[in-house]
Design brief:
This protein is 17% helix and 31% strand. It is α+β, with helices and mostly antiparallel strands. The strands form two sheets. Strands 3, 4, 5, 7 and 8 form a five-stranded antiparallel β-sheet that branches. Strands 1-2-6 form a three-stranded antiparallel β-sheet, with no helix packed on it.
């Protein structure tokens, strides 16, 4: 059985078209691989100062305000337990902490003045006295850098708060 001439011509046309497409794709890939591509770096404003790599943090400006942000406070705790507090402030600021239980300042030896590190992190650990009553007690951190001060803090919860009148204490379901 003879194959019609139109089928042969169509088959040859398809093969030629495929060869042209494949050859064009190979040529395009080769050509683009030969070109050098420049990637522009993003523009950096002239006022930005970059520290050399590995040189650490940049010194704070003494004219900037001093902020104090509580990052972590162990709470709630039971009397006799240890508490940790971490705050963020101006790098190398001088900081102090004040903890009051029922308007009486704590005198624990862990509550001493400290200097924030070069990243502005300062931490304290202390023990809640056994005699501290249940409740929420203020913890305040004050930091000074140059002539400026910043204050921050939170409330330390000691013990599980007692149930309100008419409510049962204990575990919830």
């Amino acid at each position: 059985m003879a194959v019609p001439k139109s089928v042969i011509q169509a088959t040859v046309s398809i093969v030629v078209l495929l060869l042209v497409l494949v050859g064009g794709a190979i040529g395009y890939i080769w050509y683009t691989g030969q070109q050098e591509v420049e990637i522009a770096e993003p523009a950096v404003p002239q006022t930005t100062k970059r520290a050399p790599a590995g040189s650490g943090p940049i010194a704070p400006d003494p004219n900037n305000p001093v902020g104090v942000s509580l990052q972590m406070l162990t709470s709630p705790v039971d009397p006799g337990s240890n508490v940790s507090l971490t705050a963020k402030t101006t790098p190398t600021a001088d900081c102090e902490i004040k903890v009051e239980y029922d308007k009486v300042p704590s005198t624990d030896s862990g509550l001493v003045p400290k200097k924030a590190d070069e990243y502005g992190i300062v931490s304290w650990t202390w023990t809640v006295e056994e005699s501290v009553p249940r409740g929420e007690w203020p913890v305040r951190v004050s930091c000074k850098f140059g002539e400026k001060w910043g204050v921050g803090g939170g409330d330390l919860v000691v013990g599980v708060p007692e149930a309100a009148d008419g409510e049962e204490g204990g575990a919830t379901q």
